[in-house]
Write a structure and sequence with these properties.
Shape: elongated
Distance between the termini: 36 Å
Largest sheet: none
Oligomer: single chain
Strand content: under 5%
Structural class: mainly alpha
Length: about 230
């Protein structure tokens, strides 16, 4: 017998929790309209044969309460494992971000310091690797944030003008991480305040690619604050 993920009909039955022959037939008809060779006018005969096998397997499951119970348990266990795995990745990501902030690696001056460069690059690379398993968008933004350097006087001058915005952004990350560890409503409010103020300054004064990337990072952290803190999920 194919697994739930391989059987389209079983997958939908699990989602709806409606293990009836009537529901299975309804799902079968839906897919039939999509892949039946007479309808598609293309070579989908093999896929249609597989669909009929999936339907027959679903009927066997429906008529066996013990199989239904086992499938539901398997699906619940799979979802729990997925949730635990996501939590662990998120926790690890935040822990390395905390190290990144404590060591001041967000500062270009610290980041390229000869005696610290190798250590800093290892931490940055670790954060990027972890974040690819959590949120690929953050991995891209974070990598750009740590690889972009000021190439012109205009970019350097803009950074000087946005010194306060940068400070607000980093303070926002600090409070963001503190909120994850404590669940404190005060930390949540402070994180949102710092990040929103930083966003406002960057939005109205930033022009370079470097700072446009910072704006997207701020948006990411603000969106992440919509999720329950780590301390609540543990």
């Amino acid at each position: 017998m194919t697994t739930i993920k391989e059987n389209r009909i079983l997958k939908e039955l699990v989602t709806s929790k409606n293990f009836t022959e009537k529901e299975a037939k309804k799902i079968f008809r839906k897919y039939s309209k999509m892949i039946h060779p007479d309808i598609t006018k293309t070579d989908t005969n093999e896929d249609f044969i597989n669909l009929k096998k999936e339907f027959e397997e679903a009927l066997v499951v429906i008529k066996n309460p013990l199989l239904v119970e086992n499938i539901l348990k398997e699906e619940t266990s799979s979802l729990e494992n997925e949730k635990i795995n996501t939590f662990n990745i998120r926790k690890m990501l935040y822990e390395f971000l905390e190290l990144y902030v404590i060591l001041g690696i967000y500062s270009q001056k610290i980041r390229i310091k000869p005696e610290l460069k190798e250590r800093n690059e290892k931490i940055i690379k670790k954060i990027i690797t972890i974040s690819k398993d959590y949120d690929d968008n953050f991995a891209i933004l974070f990598e750009k944030f740590n690889s972009l350097y000021f190439q012109s006087f205009e970019e350097w001058y803009e950074e000087r003008q946005l010194k306060n915005a940068k400070k607000l952004f980093i303070n926002g990350i600090r409070k963001f991480l503190e909120y994850q560890n404590t669940g404190s409503v005060t930390c949540l409010r402070m994180a949102m305040s710092y990040l929103n103020d930083a966003y406002y300054e960057y939005e109205h004064r930033a022009r370079s690619e470097y700072h446009e990337n910072v704006i997207k990072l701020i948006e990411w952290f603000l969106t992440e604050l919509d999720k329950p803190p780590l301390v609540k999920d543990s």
